[in-house]
Design brief:
about 375 residues, TIM Barrel, 10 strands, binds iron/sulfur cluster, 10-stranded mixed β-sheet
Length: about 375
């Protein structure tokens, strides 16, 4: 189990102190260590082959009914989505074919995400039910505007989690951040409260992207979300640049006030509600010292253009494209030699000098793979 000689690894895992007591409830749902539960996938990487992905992020549609000021797929100074076509959506028949492949390949979970707003994809409820029929777990990122009716029914019955992105703290600020009407905030809070009332096992959480507009209102917003019955809130800093120094300069101005707000927000934690602070993860994350990418094995992306991509940060870029599903099935493509060669040709140290949401997870896996098997038992 020593590292493959071609898989050069020099970086040590930057595991940070976890701010959750393991005995605390609700149990933490975010961890950089999850990949270590899938030894067969790590073995595949060691042998420079690809097993079935663990979790596929599917972008069913690129259209969005909101227009957020910080959306990485829509602002021009970020690498995300440079080749994205706003009119793309995975054709329904192709989507069902992909889901059937996922069901037989042994993929464990699907996360629906953007591109656009996944819950306005017309067949989304059927997708959730069909995946659940195969025993595949389902989660989704969403703006929550369509979390109602049949869509809410499907997630309440079959979903594992939903995470609503939210930034404004009232009608005016929410409308301005997203270019939507001022009533949208109250409608969203009502959608979330109604979903909670169903008593579903599907965890409803929120993701707050912190920037200069909202950084003094975090406590106010989190209090409202707790009152609506949400269980988890993730806090993270907005990405404003592909360059780490520019990003850090932006947040250096905000950080003292954000730190105060987050300290207040954490006072809201109790048995039913937990705030996860990822704001600190902005530091120096644009440098990679590993030469293959575990994320491709664990969490690849299928875009609304029916193309498979290495990860969410490289979706809709030529560099991140592994191959198209337009004329072939996902299963056939994933296990092809063409895909294997393309996946292992991506060298993060050379090709990824930009934000990478999976960097810490990649470091954990590559560090583990570099560990000498003769020393594993010296725990
Ligand atoms: S290192 Fe990060 S950005 Fe690069 S391919 Fe892997 S997950 Fe994507």
């Amino acid at each position: 189990m020593t590292a493959s000689p071609t898989l050069s690894v020099v970086e040590k895992s930057p595991i940070k102190e976890i701010d959750t007591d393991p005995a605390e409830k609700p149990a933490q749902v975010y961890s950089t260590l999850k990949a270590l539960a899938f030894q067969d996938r790590i073995d595949a990487l060691r042998e420079e082959r690809l097993a079935a992905p663990v979790n596929i992020r599917i972008k069913p549609i690129n259209h969005c009914n909101h227009d957020c000021w910080y959306c990485a797929y829509r602002v021009s100074n970020l690498q995300l989505g440079e080749d994205m076509n706003l009119r793309d959506a995975i054709p329904e028949a192709k989507m069902m074919e992909i889901i059937d492949d996922i069901g037989v390949m042994g993929v464990k979970a699907v996360t629906f995400t953007g591109g656009g707003e996944p819950l306005i994809y017309k067949p989304i409820a059927e997708c959730v039910r069909r995946l659940a029929g195969y025993g595949v777990k389902v989660g989704s990122l969403t703006n929550g505007s369509n979390l109602k009716g049949e869509v809410a029914d499907a997630f309440a019955e079959h979903g594992t989690w939903l995470r609503v992105s939210i930034d404004g703290w009232d009608g005016k600020s929410y409308g301005e951040a997203r270019n939507v009407g001022e009533k949208s905030f109250d409608k969203l809070v009502a959608n979330m409260a109604d979903f909670v009332k169903r008593g579903s096992k599907c965890i409803l959480g929120a993701s707050i992207i912190i920037g200069e507009r909202n950084h003094t209102h975090l406590y106010e917003l989190c209090s409202k979300l707790k009152d609506a019955g949400l269980e988890q809130i993730k806090l993270a800093g907005v990405i404003v640049s592909n360059h780490g120094a520019e990003n850090n300069a932006y947040h250096r101005e905000l950080k003292p006030r954000v730190t105060e707000e987050i300290a207040r927000v954490k006072n809201l934690n109790d048995d039913q509600f937990h705030v996860v602070d990822h704001y600190h993860e902005l530091d120096e994350r644009f440098q990679r010292r590993y030469h293959f990418c575990p994320t491709i094995q664990f969490t690849p992306v299928i875009g609304a253009d029916s193309v498979v991509y290495a990860c969410q940060d490289k979706a809709y870029t030529e560099q991140g494209a592994l191959g198209s599903l337009k004329d072939r099935s996902f299963k056939d493509f994933w296990f092809s030699e063409e895909n294997r060669k393309r996946a292992f040709a991506i060298d993060p140290a050379a090709h990824c000098p930009h934000n990478c949401a999976n960097h810490q997870k990649n470091v954990v896996v590559t560090d583990f793979m570099a560990t000498d098997e003769e020393h594993l038992m010296f725990v």
